[in-house]
User: Which sequence fits this backbone?
């Protein structure tokens, strides 16, 4: 059963209080794929880049067992570019530039042999495109989707249609509040699930993540990182770890979903330790498991004797 | 071994987006005592009120086994009054009025028979007064202390002196950032522990609480309350549950301290469900234990099979 990953690939110019990178590898599909690659293979990426997309980035993805058969390379086209600047506390950022370029006319086409994909991760792109992907698929079993405030505000109707067709929505706390028009996160979660979202994950950055299903609420802690170098891609790395682990284990029970949330948090913690995708490029599975266990140690407590 | 609780008793006028109460029972020592009273008895309260302090509030405390032998009632004096207004999201509030009244000249005097108290909870008052309390005590075993941004900014030197003399500091996330001059909470915690704080607890409201000791970091989830009526006293209720449980069990191990943090969170969750102290006035121990177990269910996950 294949895992399909749809989203953006881009060249990011990112400034933090500590440093700056120019035209680094970025994009939601990139981070999701690299993160998921530590759990399962092959991954099938659907996306678009221009002719200027560096060969070394193609190689990096291929080295991580990412099948790029569904990657459109537009002749003479320019790759999507994003530039952002993080504030002192790294929790807020300003977008300095968004150049859609080849992304502007992106029409995701799912290759015939991937239409029966059972696990699908829709990275943060226009909900219209996310729906287009689902329309081409033949009865997927498990669809995870990400979105952002830009689409919640600008394409609400399309997003609401999409939400009834996915199994899991992953958003951050401010997006959850915006989507539900409700400041209380737990109430907001209830409202969002009533929109037709079966499983909701709310990422809270330095405060961890929450998982809401019909039956459970699970609260995962944040990894105690004292040094965050670049928060870009944290959410996508989370999604990649989450769906990668579920695809590996083929177990969609609530108990396993909790573990998937912790593996998602684990991958996000590796991501933000380095600039761009560097934190996801070379991790041993042993380190991933060690960090998973650290999450467990941090959150475990027993009943009184 | 007695448990000594020092702090304010006041009359609070509180407005939230939902309702308003006038001259309701408030004050740090009040919330700490009521909360701790569910775990251990007797509690010895040190504080000051004016002649206008309602008899029914005295009775309420006495009904919760709070020994008021150390409560000074100033003849002709007026009780401390505080008035605040919570914003829409209940996470921020404006202080509309602070009338110190009898608190202005408060000199905490520890009765002779309580000078050997081994467990002490210093509620949020002027660090000069908190130090005065410690100066009168004969070798306390376990001192928990709370403070707030007002003292961090206004009496930093006195506060820093105090911190080297307590075992546990309980503050919220914004206070931790302010005290450490550091936006990253985990780094801030390290800096604060280097100031001489043996055990640090950072309360994060809707995001739970963190416990830092020499050896462990423990992350407790928040209780998924969909309706918060009045956040006033949440932090004090946390402190009361924390020290009340530790005093009851007389076990200061890291494992038991984790449980104490969850009992603290449990009591804070009961507190904010109602206005003023109402949420702490009549809880069965069974309900407290049930909620403790809900925290456990929310945060528990197992390693893969």
Assistant:
């Amino acid at each position: 059963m294949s895992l399909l990953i749809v989203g953006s690939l881009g060249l990011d110019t990112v400034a933090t209080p500590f440093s700056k990178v120019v035209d680094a590898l970025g994009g939601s599909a990139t981070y999701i794929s690299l993160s998921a690659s530590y759990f399962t293979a092959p991954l099938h990426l659907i996306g678009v880049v221009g002719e200027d997309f560096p060969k070394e980035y193609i190689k990096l993805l291929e080295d991580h067992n990412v099948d790029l058969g569904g990657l459109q390379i537009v002749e003479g086209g320019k790759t999507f570019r994003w530039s952002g600047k993080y504030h002192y506390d790294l929790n807020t950022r300003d977008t300095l530039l968004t150049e859609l370029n080849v992304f502007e006319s992106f029409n995701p086409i799912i290759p015939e042999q991937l239409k029966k994909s059972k696990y699908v991760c829709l990275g943060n792109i226009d909900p219209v495109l996310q729906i287009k992907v689902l329309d081409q698929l033949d009865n997927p079993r498990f669809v995870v989707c990400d979105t952002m405030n830009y689409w919640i505000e600008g394409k609400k109707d399309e997003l609401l249609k999409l939400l009834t067709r996915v199994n899991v929505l992953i958003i951050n706390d401010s997006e959850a509040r915006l989507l539900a028009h409700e400041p209380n996160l737990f109430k907001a979660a209830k409202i969002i699930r009533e929109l037709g979202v079966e499983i909701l994950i709310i990422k809270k950055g330095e405060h961890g993540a929450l998982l809401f299903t019909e039956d459970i609420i699970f609260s995962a802690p944040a990894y105690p990182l004292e040094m965050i170098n670049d928060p870009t891609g944290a959410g996508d790395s989370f999604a990649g770890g989450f769906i990668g682990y579920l695809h590996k284990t083929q177990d969609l029970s609530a108990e396993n979903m909790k573990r998937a949330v912790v593996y998602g948090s684990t991958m996000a913690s590796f991501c933000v330790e380095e600039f761009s995708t560097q934190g996801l490029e070379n991790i041993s599975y042993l380190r991933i498991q060690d960090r998973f266990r650290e999450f467990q140690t941090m959150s475990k407590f027993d009943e009184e004797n």
